[in-house]
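RECORD TYPE: protein structure
NAME: DUF922 domain-containing protein
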Amino acid sequence: MKIARRPRYLVSVAAILALLSSQATAETIVHKTVSYFQIGGTTAQDLDRELERRGPYTMSTGARHPGATRIRFGGDVTYVESGGRCRVGSAKVTLKTQLVLPKWKNRKRAGKDLALIWDALSSDIRRHEERHAEIARQYARKLETSLKGLRPQRECLAMEIKVAETTSRIIDAHDKDQMRFDRVEAANFEKRMIRILNYRSKRNP
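PREDICTED:
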Protein backbone atom coordinates (compact mmCIF):
# COMPACT_ATOMS: atom_id res chain seq x y z
CA MET A 1 0.00 0.00 0.00
CA LYS A 2 1.64 3.22 -1.12
CA ILE A 3 0.65 6.60 0.23
CA ALA A 4 1.24 9.86 -1.62
CA ARG A 5 1.45 13.11 0.24
CA ARG A 6 3.46 16.08 1.46
CA PRO A 7 3.86 19.48 -0.15
CA ARG A 8 7.45 20.07 0.92
CA TYR A 9 9.15 16.77 1.63
CA LEU A 10 7.95 13.28 0.80
CA VAL A 11 7.43 10.05 2.65
CA SER A 12 6.65 7.08 0.50
CA VAL A 13 5.09 4.43 2.72
CA ALA A 14 4.80 0.82 1.60
CA ALA A 15 2.92 -0.77 4.49
CA ILE A 16 2.87 -4.52 4.01
CA LEU A 17 2.21 -7.01 6.78
CA ALA A 18 2.78 -10.62 5.68
CA LEU A 19 0.84 -12.94 7.95
CA LEU A 20 2.80 -16.18 7.62
CA SER A 21 2.59 -19.42 9.58
CA SER A 22 6.21 -19.52 10.74
CA GLN A 23 7.93 -19.15 14.08
CA ALA A 24 8.44 -15.56 15.24
CA THR A 25 10.43 -13.80 17.92
CA ALA A 26 8.81 -11.52 20.47
CA GLU A 27 10.47 -8.17 19.77
CA THR A 28 9.82 -5.57 17.11
CA ILE A 29 12.72 -5.60 14.64
CA VAL A 30 13.69 -2.17 13.31
CA HIS A 31 16.26 -1.62 10.58
CA LYS A 32 17.22 1.88 9.40
CA THR A 33 19.52 2.89 6.55
CA VAL A 34 20.55 6.25 5.15
CA SER A 35 21.47 6.94 1.53
CA TYR A 36 22.52 10.16 -0.17
CA PHE A 37 22.14 11.80 -3.55
CA GLN A 38 24.76 14.34 -4.58
CA ILE A 39 24.03 17.81 -5.83
CA GLY A 40 26.39 20.44 -7.24
CA GLY A 41 26.36 24.18 -7.85
CA THR A 42 27.67 27.32 -6.17
CA THR A 43 24.58 29.56 -6.13
CA ALA A 44 21.13 29.36 -4.56
CA GLN A 45 19.64 28.95 -8.02
CA ASP A 46 22.03 26.05 -8.67
CA LEU A 47 20.94 24.30 -5.50
CA ASP A 48 17.24 24.72 -6.28
CA ARG A 49 17.76 23.35 -9.76
CA GLU A 50 19.87 20.43 -8.55
CA LEU A 51 17.36 19.44 -5.87
CA GLU A 52 14.58 19.50 -8.45
CA ARG A 53 16.63 17.40 -10.88
CA ARG A 54 18.28 14.92 -8.54
CA GLY A 55 16.02 14.59 -5.50
CA PRO A 56 14.21 11.29 -4.87
CA TYR A 57 11.36 10.79 -7.34
CA THR A 58 8.03 9.38 -6.25
CA MET A 59 5.49 8.05 -8.70
CA SER A 60 2.64 8.89 -6.34
CA THR A 61 3.31 12.64 -6.66
CA GLY A 62 5.08 12.64 -10.02
CA ALA A 63 7.75 14.94 -8.62
CA ARG A 64 11.18 15.00 -7.03
CA HIS A 65 11.76 16.12 -3.46
CA PRO A 66 14.71 17.38 -1.37
CA GLY A 67 14.43 14.37 0.93
CA ALA A 68 12.38 11.23 1.48
CA THR A 69 11.70 8.48 3.98
CA ARG A 70 10.75 5.09 2.62
CA ILE A 71 8.99 2.86 5.12
CA ARG A 72 8.10 -0.81 4.93
CA PHE A 73 6.26 -2.79 7.56
CA GLY A 74 6.36 -6.57 7.57
CA GLY A 75 6.04 -9.41 10.01
CA ASP A 76 4.90 -12.87 11.07
CA VAL A 77 1.92 -14.08 13.07
CA THR A 78 1.34 -17.62 14.29
CA TYR A 79 -1.91 -19.11 15.63
CA VAL A 80 -2.55 -21.68 18.34
CA GLU A 81 -5.73 -23.76 18.75
CA SER A 82 -6.60 -25.06 22.19
CA GLY A 83 -9.77 -25.63 24.19
CA GLY A 84 -11.97 -24.91 21.20
CA ARG A 85 -10.49 -21.45 20.76
CA CYS A 86 -7.85 -19.93 18.49
CA ARG A 87 -5.43 -17.29 19.67
CA VAL A 88 -2.34 -15.51 18.44
CA GLY A 89 0.61 -17.65 19.40
CA SER A 90 3.34 -15.18 18.51
CA ALA A 91 3.56 -11.92 16.64
CA LYS A 92 6.58 -10.19 15.18
CA VAL A 93 6.46 -6.87 13.40
CA THR A 94 9.44 -5.73 11.34
CA LEU A 95 10.13 -2.23 10.11
CA LYS A 96 12.57 -1.04 7.48
CA THR A 97 13.16 2.66 7.00
CA GLN A 98 15.42 4.29 4.44
CA LEU A 99 16.24 7.98 4.67
CA VAL A 100 17.22 9.58 1.36
CA LEU A 101 19.09 12.84 1.96
CA PRO A 102 20.96 15.41 -0.14
CA LYS A 103 24.73 15.93 -0.03
CA TRP A 104 26.21 19.11 -1.52
CA LYS A 105 29.59 18.39 -3.09
CA ASN A 106 30.53 22.04 -3.77
CA ARG A 107 29.99 23.43 -0.29
CA LYS A 108 33.65 24.44 0.24
CA ARG A 109 33.63 26.48 -2.97
CA ALA A 110 30.52 28.49 -2.08
CA GLY A 111 30.20 31.74 -0.17
CA LYS A 112 29.69 31.86 3.57
CA ASP A 113 26.04 33.00 3.37
CA LEU A 114 25.04 30.21 1.00
CA ALA A 115 26.88 27.63 3.10
CA LEU A 116 25.00 28.87 6.18
CA ILE A 117 21.67 28.56 4.40
CA TRP A 118 22.52 25.09 3.12
CA ASP A 119 23.59 23.85 6.53
CA ALA A 120 20.29 25.07 7.99
CA LEU A 121 18.22 23.54 5.20
CA SER A 122 20.01 20.17 5.11
CA SER A 123 19.83 19.79 8.89
CA ASP A 124 16.10 20.54 8.77
CA ILE A 125 15.56 18.00 6.00
CA ARG A 126 17.36 15.32 8.03
CA ARG A 127 15.47 16.16 11.23
CA HIS A 128 12.21 16.00 9.31
CA GLU A 129 12.93 12.59 7.81
CA GLU A 130 14.24 11.22 11.10
CA ARG A 131 10.93 12.17 12.67
CA HIS A 132 9.04 10.26 9.98
CA ALA A 133 11.14 7.20 10.81
CA GLU A 134 10.42 7.64 14.53
CA ILE A 135 6.66 7.87 13.90
CA ALA A 136 6.89 4.60 11.97
CA ARG A 137 8.81 2.96 14.84
CA GLN A 138 6.12 3.99 17.31
CA TYR A 139 3.40 2.44 15.18
CA ALA A 140 5.39 -0.74 14.57
CA ARG A 141 5.59 -1.29 18.31
CA LYS A 142 1.93 -0.39 18.73
CA LEU A 143 0.96 -2.88 16.03
CA GLU A 144 2.93 -5.69 17.62
CA THR A 145 1.47 -5.01 21.06
CA SER A 146 -2.05 -4.86 19.65
CA LEU A 147 -1.69 -8.14 17.77
CA LYS A 148 -0.41 -9.92 20.85
CA GLY A 149 -3.31 -8.55 22.90
CA LEU A 150 -6.13 -9.74 20.63
CA ARG A 151 -8.76 -11.89 22.32
CA PRO A 152 -9.04 -15.52 21.21
CA GLN A 153 -11.72 -16.41 18.68
CA ARG A 154 -13.75 -19.58 18.13
CA GLU A 155 -11.78 -20.49 15.03
CA CYS A 156 -8.51 -19.46 13.42
CA LEU A 157 -10.18 -17.98 10.35
CA ALA A 158 -11.95 -15.48 12.60
CA MET A 159 -8.64 -14.84 14.37
CA GLU A 160 -6.93 -14.15 11.06
CA ILE A 161 -9.67 -11.66 10.17
CA LYS A 162 -9.14 -9.90 13.50
CA VAL A 163 -5.41 -9.70 12.83
CA ALA A 164 -6.01 -8.26 9.36
CA GLU A 165 -8.51 -5.70 10.67
CA THR A 166 -6.17 -4.61 13.46
CA THR A 167 -3.27 -4.31 11.05
CA SER A 168 -5.32 -2.22 8.61
CA ARG A 169 -6.59 0.08 11.35
CA ILE A 170 -3.15 0.78 12.83
CA ILE A 171 -1.46 1.24 9.45
CA ASP A 172 -4.21 3.68 8.47
CA ALA A 173 -3.65 5.62 11.72
CA HIS A 174 0.08 5.62 10.97
CA ASP A 175 -0.48 7.10 7.51
CA LYS A 176 -2.76 9.81 8.87
CA ASP A 177 -0.26 10.69 11.58
CA GLN A 178 2.50 11.02 8.97
CA MET A 179 0.33 13.32 6.86
CA ARG A 180 -0.60 15.38 9.91
CA PHE A 181 3.09 15.84 10.70
CA ASP A 182 3.75 17.01 7.13
CA ARG A 183 0.97 19.60 7.28
CA VAL A 184 2.35 21.07 10.49
CA GLU A 185 5.90 21.09 9.15
CA ALA A 186 4.89 22.78 5.89
CA ALA A 187 2.93 25.47 7.73
CA ASN A 188 5.89 26.27 10.01
CA PHE A 189 8.68 25.94 7.44
CA GLU A 190 9.56 29.63 7.01
CA LYS A 191 9.50 30.44 10.73
CA ARG A 192 11.57 27.35 11.45
CA MET A 193 14.20 28.22 8.86
CA ILE A 194 14.50 31.81 10.10
CA ARG A 195 14.97 30.55 13.65
CA ILE A 196 17.64 28.04 12.56
CA LEU A 197 19.47 30.65 10.47
CA ASN A 198 19.48 33.18 13.31
CA TYR A 199 20.81 30.57 15.71
CA ARG A 200 23.56 29.43 13.35
CA SER A 201 24.59 32.98 12.39
CA LYS A 202 25.06 33.87 16.07
CA ARG A 203 27.17 30.76 16.59
CA ASN A 204 29.30 31.54 13.51
CA PRO A 205 29.52 35.35 13.22
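COMMENT: The helical segments are 44-54, 112-148, 156-187, 189-203.
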